[in-house]
Amino acid sequence: MLLEPLDLIVFIGYCMLIIGMGLFVSREKKGHVKNSSDYFLASKALPWWAVGASLIASNISAEQFIGMSGSGFAMGLAISTYEWMAAATLLVVAIFFLPVYFKKGIYTMPGFLLDRYDTRVRTTMAIFWLLLYVFVNLTSVLYLGALSLNTILDVPMIWGIVGLAAFAMLYSIYGGLKAVAWTDVVQVVFLVAGGLATTYIALKMVGSGDAWEGLSLLRKEVPGHFTMIFSRGEMMIPDGSGGVKDAYLDLPGISVLIGGMWITNLSYWGFNQYITQRALAAKSLDEAQKGMIFAGFLKLLMPLIVVIPGIAAFVIVENGIDISFIESMKDPASSLIKSDRAYPTLLQLLPVGLKGLAFAALTAAIVSSLASMANSTSTIFTMDIYNKYIGKGASETKQVKVGRITALVAFGLASLVAPALGALDQAFQFIQEYTGFISPGVFAIFFFGVFWKKTTSNAALVGAALSIPLSIVLKIAFPGLPFIDRMGVVFLILATLMIIISLVEGKGKDHPNSIDINKELFKTSTSFKIGAVLIAGITAALYIVFW
């Protein structure tokens, strides 16, 4: 299927706008040479709305549009817990962790670990994050983006991967975080507008021309797809190879509210370089916190854009509403219906003009995340590996050059690995599970580092070193244990070990690098408090309605 001329005009216009804007904001005043603060922290000049927009553009990617829609197709609204719990998590991060980061004046998350612990902890976690960003995050986004191009335009997977990587590199490698963050403001507009257009058309199809009727029909036709909290055995979903598995393994009941989901959410939103880097680039702590509130409201909206279309696609398939749609849902190689083909297939239903907008929205989500991940990869490598071990005393210009080369290498490696993800049914769950191998250790190190003064460097090193091995052992030994619960168990083991080691080693004394915490540090503005109450109230109401 090819885009119509009007769709191509809309899409090409979007591409030119993003590249042009990225290069424009990256230009330097006469006589000014781009330094590390300019390149890695956007000169610390982002207002709240740019922080919030960039947070969402960096977060929402193919893994949400394609992967979360696929999970919506398979298991329904329950997958929205990642979005709605994230809104609550943003409040926790804004209140309790951002003030500490701003007080320390850090560039990177490993930099915080150096300040709180020592070089060994920083380097260990820096290497873990680099591997995660390149071989899980960048790789999966490239694969899912190429899958959409393949489904919509019949672009060969390898060319889709190369094309998306090249697009993201065109403006992000030269301009750094400034180019990424300011283009993200535009990307979010396309992302939301195009996403809502796809939702509207999908609901109209289900409702025989009436979108509101389609929305009400969804709950009537598939009430099981509107359950937020699963019981064991309540819903069976595709396993990607023609069989089925229990949805409880992906979303284990109440654990999504009071268990391991908090570990993965706090690790992602509070201690993840390509997310926190946006907040660190804000004009001030207050602007960063307001940006978090803005992002929180957008997260509450996201399931309407990325989950409801997947549920609509499920109804279309189950009720046989459109035979050609059902055929497009099938994987060409296995002829099995693939959950992750739901969103790309829906894009084919859009009318001329809207199709170009929706395709631009999907591409915006993909390239903004790719640019963010690559920029953060280059930031960690340059600031925490290169400056420490390879180019000690390197000039500002040299650091920027190394950052650009690192981003280029990251894109190259991810492009080589991406095709290997073709066997997955729900790539979103793959990302969550394998990110979850490191999340318990990350959470333990930061949580105890901020809030328990007795935590020692050796205890943190044990937490960092054992997170992945413990996760692998539990995955093999207890294959029936949901990965979210597994993260909770690993965290509890690591927390116990870290407490014991710290007490024995430190003999009950505070660590010399411990952080002084006081009430003044956690004060917030009135506008932040109002936004926080609204987000908490809306989140609670959503869970009450859809429990």
Give a short summary of the structure.
With 547 residues, the protein is an all-alpha fold. Helices cover 73% and strands 1% of the residues.
**Fraction of residues in β-strands:** under 5%
Quaternary structure state of the chains depicted:
single chain
State Rg. Answer: 23 Å
Describe the main β-sheet briefly.
2 strands, antiparallel
Mean pLDDT over the full residue set = 83
Secondary structure: number of strands = 2
Q: Fraction of residues in helices?
A: over 70%
H and E string: HHHHHHHHHHEEHHHHHHHHHHHHHH
CATH architecture: Up-down Bundle
What is the overall shape? globular
Unreliable stretches (pLDDT < 50, length at least 5) are none
Here the CATH topology equals Sodium/glucose cotransporter
Provide keyphrases for this structure.
547 residues; 2 strands; Sodium/glucose cotransporter; two-stranded antiparallel sheet
Helix-strand layout with pairing:
Elements: H1 5-26, H2 36-41, H3 48-59, H4 62-75, H5 81-96, H6 98-104, H7 109-116, H8 119-153, H9 157-206, H10 211-221, E1 236-238, E2 244-246, H11 255-258, H12 260-271, H13 273-280, H14 285-306, H15 308-318, H16 323-328, H17 342-347, H18 354-390, H19 396-417, H20 427-435, H21 439-451, H22 457-477, H23 483-506, H24 526-546
Antiparallel strand pairs: 1-2
Helix pairs in contact: 1-9, 1-18, 3-9, 3-13, 3-14, 3-18, 4-8, 4-15, 4-20, 5-12, 5-14, 5-24, 7-8, 8-9, 8-18, 8-19, 8-20, 8-22, 9-10, 9-14, 9-15, 9-18, 9-19, 12-21, 12-23, 13-18, 14-24, 18-19, 21-22, 21-23, 22-23
